[in-house]
Amino acid sequence: MIARVVDQDGNAKRREREAIMTDDRYVPGLENVIASETNISYLDVEAEQIVLRGYDLIELARSVSYVEVAGLLLNGSLPDGKGRDLLEEQLSAASAIPDAIYDILAHVPAGTHRMDALRTAISALAGFDGELEDHSAEANGRKAIRLLAKVPGLVVNGHRILSGQPVIETRGDLSFAGNFLFMLTAKVPEPLEERIFDQSLIAYSEHELPNSTFAARVIASTMSDMYGAVAGAVSSLKGYLHGGANEAVMAMLGEAATPGELEAVMLGKLARKERIMGFGHRVYMRKPDPRALLMKEALARLAEAKGRQDLYEMCDAGEAVMKREKGLYPNLDYYAAPVYALLGIPVPLFTPVFLAARTAGLCAHVSEQHAGNRLFRPRVSYTGPRGLRLS
Ligand SMILES: CC(=O)SCCNC(=O)CCNC(=O)[C@H](O)C(C)(C)COP(=O)(O)OP(=O)(O)OC[C@H]1O[C@@H](n2cnc3c(N)ncnc32)[C@H](O)[C@@H]1OP(=O)(O)O
Ligand SMILES: O=C([O-])CC(=O)C(=O)O
């Protein structure tokens, strides 16, 4: 089918599109459909590489900090040492959260899912940003820093308020990752713990066009604001087919204590045609997720340091079961979950931590969408009736 584009205003771009051939094939889940142009990231599945603004994510995770990766995502280039220190300072300076946000969180039911609480908090924070409706690249860059700075506090203190605990203050003497882990565990982390947590934040920082990023871009494409777009992404990420899987992995691992028991749990689920959380991926599917390998390595180091090789061995055995039974590889969530458990992060905060890390990528996408916007408005393949009459 030729796209029917009416060229009433003589717009050259419209004429260009008129010439583009499309077909009317419906692709469920938009699998493999190219829905956006971006210079932020790309999953090069063949090369088994996640490209972030030209760099390999795994190489970044081995050599630089999350804050440097956030700078790369938001500004387009890796900051040097001075730039990194400046960004750390800016994030620390912007981390204070208005008391009114905590008051709102104090009024939501204690059982509220922590992603719902986080979405509420991000949504309410919009009203405090004086540049909310300025969608210029410069204003979006400043908003991204303000939001990224506050999300760790919203994640941790949202949970603490709902759990009846006092809020915990940020520690200006720690790095972004060190302070975040300190707040999550109420304990200054050991260097190995901080490094591994930092790597996990890089692993989660950005991943091309997953459901949540697509949701954020769709929202931003109406020229709605950054907070609204990120709040939409929170809803998307909560689902267990996406970010919610890291918590679901932990629930599954909690059902077993030995490799044999985990195998039995997995086989039981497969026999009942249930999905095994932390396995499979829309883009990688039959290839390894490079981030899962990174987190598996991190789990090995952490398990050794904490005398929990049993946990590593059980997870490794679970991976072998899925390879044998379904030919499926683990995704990032499968190994991030036990890493977070060993770091002492409360399970209900696993997915909120994912969102906190992804805030850098999401804000970069919102800015990019605003800068070169075209409204998302696809069509449907209608399957309902027609021609019904009222009488
Ligand atoms: C950081 C992230 O967000 S990564 C994703 C986190 N999510 C999870 O870990 C949840 C578990 N995984 C899944 O449910 C899926 O692999 C998804 C949602 C991630 C991707 O799913 P899709 O691209 O829609 O794959 P689809 O559903 O078509 O699956 C293809 C086949 O693999 C099977 N499959 C895929 N994942 C799994 C799984 N985790 N457990 C069991 N079988 C699976 C499907 O049953 C299907 O088998 P079939 O062809 O015999 O019917
Ligand atoms: O890419 C996806 O579909 C999901 C994912 O791994 C991520 O968002 O990190």
Automatic annotation (TrEMBL):
GO terms for cellular component: cytosol. It comes from Paenibacillus agaridevorans. One of its GO terms (molecular function) is citrate synthase activity. Transmembrane segments: none annotated. It catalyses: oxaloacetate + acetyl-CoA + H2O = citrate + CoA + H(+). NCBIfam families: PRK12349.1. PROSITE patterns: CITRATE_SYNTHASE (PS00480). Pathway: Carbohydrate metabolism; tricarboxylic acid cycle; isocitrate from oxaloacetate: step 1/2. The keyword Transferase applies. GO terms for biological process: carbohydrate metabolic process; tricarboxylic acid cycle. The keyword Nucleus does not apply. It comes from the Bacteria. The active site is at H281, D333. Belongs to the citrate synthase family. Keywords: Transferase, Tricarboxylic acid cycle. This is Citrate synthase.
